[in-house]
Amino acid sequence: MLANVLDLSNAHVPGPTPNWGRVRVVEHEFRWVVFISGDLGDREARRTVPDWMLGIWKHAVKENCIAVIFDRDADVDDRFLKFNW
Fold first, then answer.
1. Dihedral in degrees, nearest 10, Cα atoms 62, 53, 68, 85
2. Tell me: the pLDDT tens digits for 26-77?
3. In whole angstroms, what is the distance from residue 65 CA to residue 37 CA?
4. 12 by DSSP, 3-state: which?
5. Which residue from 44, 41, 32 is spatially nearest to 5, judged by alpha carbons?
6. What string of DSSP letters covers 19-60?
7. pLDDT recorded at residue 82
């Protein structure tokens, strides 16, 4: 079985200790893995997912991703918010 994962630069995270809201996240040395729950309705997503990540979350759900990886070596995607830190 293959699964979709959205791979994004850490530049899309608002700092080294971001507020992850109520999403499930695993931190590694140079990356974070955020697990996507596609069954959240829009209202529940707004209560669960931090504002800075909501656009990324919705895109990941639309693309049937099981996770988003924020990695220091991944590419920046101009469709999403970027932060300088």
1. 150
2. 999 889 999 998 777 778 878 899 999 999 999 999 999 999 999 999 999 9
3. 9
4. helix
5. 32
6. --TT-EEEE-SSEEEEE--TT--HHHHHHHS-GGGHHHHHHH
7. 97
pTM of the prediction? Answer: 0.90
8 three-state secondary structure: strand
d(CA 9, CA 77): 8
Check the CA dihedral 73-78-80-82 and report its sign: positive
Which amino acid is present at 28?
Answer: H
Please state, as a whole number, how many other Cβ atoms lie within 10 Å of the Cβ of residue 72: 11
DSSP symbol at 61:
H
